[in-house]
Amino acid sequence: MTNISEGSAMDNLEAIFSPKSVAVIGASTTPGKVGHDIFANILKGGFAGVLYPVNPSAKSILCVRAYPSLNEIPDEVDLAIIILPPAVAIKAAHEAIEKKVKGLVIVSAGFREVGGKGLEIENEIVSVCRKEGIRIIGPNCLGVINPNPLVRLNASFSVRMPKFGNISFISQSGALCTAVLDFAADMDFGFSKFISIGNKADVDELDLLKYLHKDLDTEVIMIYLEELRRGPEFIEDVKKITLGNIKPTPIIAIKSGRTGAGALAAASHTGALAGTEAVYDAIFQQSGIIRVDSIHELFDFASAFASRNENEQGKLRRKVPAGNRVAIVTNAGGPGIVATDMTVSSGLKLAEFSEETIEVLASHLPATANIHNPVDVVGDAAQDRYENALSAVTRDEGVDGALVILTPQSMTNALGTAEAIARIARRSNKPILCCFMGIFDVSAGVKYLQEHGIPVFKFPENAAKALGALYKYSTMMNRQELAPYTLQHDKKRAEEIIARCIDEGKYKLGELESGELLECYGFKTLTSGLAKTKDEAAQISDSLTFPVAMKIVSPDILHKTDAGGVVLEINSKNDVLKTFDEIMNKALEFDGKAEIKGILIQQMAKKGAEVILGMNRYPVFGPLLMVGLGGIFVELFQDVVFALAPVERNEARRTIRQIKGFKLFKGFRGRPVCDLEALNKLLVSLSAMSINHEEIMEMDINPILLHEEGLGATVADCRIILRKENAEK
């Protein structure tokens, strides 16, 4: 049941999931019709409250008295299930308002998803119900289920009431729901709430996540998503659910459309690399959601997070690894190797045993056994070998978690081994995950482990991935939080520059204007000048110290290097004049119709690691920031990561550390250690710039030269695109 501490909106969600009375509007006497089957499912599921069928043509349905209309029911109704076509559903919604019903579940289809009149009716239903504080799930959904013995509500298409457990499931796909319920029954998998949200006309996934966070029955949430309609608000609210101090609740999500999402048709590097999936990856990462790639992983991870086993005092507890050091105990070499590979791929590593642990293992295992990690207790291992080996490795201070693999041999006692594992789990604070390979020969052991709250999987790679997910969540829960930066930004000056550019019809800003804007937010740029003629090039070179760089400036040539439009390390005025002609000729060869603004002559920067920073503004979600390895390697390696603004100090640090080549900044193979603090501040400043100036649609700062520690960073090239309000000039 749910402990409610918020207002009426949350109370009315409670009326949907734990109603005392339910009316089914559109209940039918005809088996096979939705109105009949949903009513039958509620009735046969043993609903603990009062059930009213509403049908103007029936006296009773399944021996329960029927009522011609909702208003003719003599008692209060908490929840109304509407199973009527849109044109009639609107009338039922008005009756629900008159009856002071607290919640609606609209199962019927034909609303927003078909457009036209259906969309109009959906909007009208939502409008009138919101005025009265009535919450709606659906329409176009498969319903809701609450298996709690005190409620037992199965207002859904499923004929089976699932087992009561501590996991809630939310799905945008109705068809997936029935398949998941069937799959869960085979796995002996229990749910606390099961919700099909359909069109999300009113209640959406964020409403439900906030509700389930307060639900005492729910300890883990699984969610299938197709799209989100809320951006930064979603991140901030969900972060409190997953990582907050009050009842932190893991959320495991699968998001469809990963491969179908294309990149935005954008001009910059950032736009080309940042498709909608990058947005969702950023949302999940920043909000503390664990993302999975398959339905099977969704179940595997949820099973690991939901498992609770007793300690020696008889208290149930969830165990997560304090570190990433894993011990593997197996009776088969092959599966042990598979587990090892997936352990490393999942962000974990094999633990190195202490000498004491190795001695204990040697004293209990045969000479043919491997007493190092992964521990091979040999194929003929009885339960005592497993117990001794697992006891030894879990006592080792250098081990944070254990993975136990059992393959059924003729001498294997799966049940006895499971009992031994459970005994050790009771006295250990470390997570123990099991893989009992097979089905029939290990079934008794698997059942025993499940009954005692120990996660068990069919294959070693699944167990290793699940342990990796537990570790990832543990690191998120315990991550370091530093005080936010206090940075000085000249917002007013930036507004003036943007206004001037728009007045002049400039929307694709070159390096000079872009550099001006960036300087307002603490970015260091290079001394430079724009030469339209060779004479101007000579004058500018006289004002600079050699060596210099020269770059083509054209709104039609986005990637200068591809056009031969960048030359570095020019050491004399004569070379400047010669290079001027060469760049001009190459640019026109590359694009004969390109508008050439001139050639930028720029002071060469000190050496540094090349980094890219970028931003692309998305509808709904707002500015998506990007950081990664820069220069010409952006498209080649695409080693970039994303975060949705706003980004403060701690989020910036975490984002930058996700770059695969992050070691390059930390003194890799004798390279100088880079000024990461400067990069952190620049990412925070980029976020502030994106939030403060909605006219900026894209930013591409590539490369930024990240100098040695303490020396900051310098922008070597940049471009900014403003929102185009008029035709481009």
UniProtKB/TrEMBL annotation:
A GO molecular function held by the record: ATP binding
The keyword Oxidoreductase is annotated on this UniProt entry: no
Domain CoA-binding: 16-111
Keyword Ligase in record: yes
Database matches in InterPro entries: Acyl-CoA_Synth/Transferase (IPR051538), ATP_grasp_subdomain_1 (IPR013815), CoA-bd (IPR003781), Ligase_CoA_dom (IPR043938), NAD(P)-bd_dom_sf (IPR036291), Succ_CoA_lig_flav_dom (IPR032875), Succinyl-CoA_synth-like (IPR016102)
SMART domains registered for this protein in UniProt: CoA_binding
Coiled-coil regions listed in the entry: none
UniProt KW keywords: ATP-binding, Ligase, Nucleotide-binding
Entry's family note: In the N-terminal section; belongs to the acetate CoA ligase alpha subunit family.
Protein name (database record): Uncharacterized protein MJ0590
Species for this entry: uncultured Desulfobacterium sp
